[in-house]
Amino acid sequence: MKNIKLIEVPSEIGAGTRGASLAIESIKIAALDFMSNFFIHFPSEKVKTENEMLFEPIHSPYAKRLQGIVTMSKRTSKAVADSIQNNFFPIVLSGDHSNAIGTIAGIKEAIPDSKLGVIWIDAHADLHTPYTTPSGNVHGMPLAASIGENNLKSKVHELDEKTAAQWEELKNVGGINPKILGENIVFISLRDFEKEEKALIEKYGMKVVTTGEVRRKGVESVVRSVLKFLNECTHIYVSFDADSLDSSISKGTGTPVSNGLREREADDLISKLMQNRKICCFEITEVNPTLDSENLMSEIAFHILQRAVNVLLMN
């Protein structure tokens, strides 16, 4: 049985749409609506944010609020590393996906010799860099930062010295760079990405499982093939972005995309993955209650969270 610790990171400075910082409170409200006392059962830690930067002018158009994200990544990394070193299984509830940079750094900081695999359940590849980004939003860059990639072959922008230096600092958070190898990344339900990202998927031979594949082969078979692909890894981190769900149900997220997973598919997928002993951390991110009329996305996120934790507690 695992000791679980909840790490709350309500930071949204990496996103383009406002509101993801309210996700954790809205998931707690969903729990209360279901008469669940889930949140009083586990120790939790709240990581201080830099969200006041949202009111300030942007200095780095190709990596917006980058210095704040470096600061957040260091704080999140410390929280995750401390919890793993104290024999907790960290479950990270975060605002936007740029927070995953800190989560991955924290796992590596706690287990530096690990060969870390990543299962990225997301509509997007999040493999942009400040040199290739179409938006400048750092929540589109966490995997590139974690594999230590600039992707200069696909370069679109020239960076000023300060931005380039901060990006290097971000890649080196936790003192290990790269933190993961590109060939140890699996995408599930990926369906919206740019050619610059596709170049990296092909360069490293990352595995992509489409929504159609999940449907055709079934969750059990997909999980088997994903874990087989990551067979060489000693530890695996699972990151669940709310926009992996189909846009018909994922209105409460900043970047909804059609042809995504159904709630049941995501739920089954994650609880099946959680049975594997190599899984060392789970993150839920990009829930945005301000875009949702009935808090539906938070309710779905809570169900997924609750079931994942139940599986972990049984293992």
Short synopsis of the structure:
The chain has one domain (4-314): 3-Layer(aba) Sandwich (Arginase, Chain A). 37% of the residues lie in helices and 13% in strands. The chain has helices at residues 23-33, 66-85, 100-110, 142-146, 161-171, 195-204, 211-217, 219-229, 263-273, 296-314; strands at 4-9, 44-46, 89-94, 116-121, 185-188, 207-209, 235-241, 279-285.
3D architecture notes:
Helix 9 links the parallel strand 7 and strand 8. The chain is globular. It has helices at 23-33, 66-85, 100-110, 142-146, 161-171, 195-204, 211-217, 219-229, 263-273, 296-314, and strands at 4-9, 44-46, 89-94, 116-121, 185-188, 207-209, 235-241, 279-285. The protein is α/β, with parallel strands linked by helices and 315 residues long. The longest helix has 20 residues, at 66-85. Helix 2 runs parallel beside helix 5 (161-171), helix 8 packs across helix 9 (263-273) and helix 9 runs parallel beside helix 10 (296-314). The model has no long low-confidence stretch (mean pLDDT 97). The protein has one domain: Ureohydrolase domain (Arginase, Chain A, 3-Layer(aba) Sandwich), CATH 3.40.800. Strands 2-1-3-8-7-4-5-6 form an 8-stranded parallel β-sheet, sandwiched between helices.
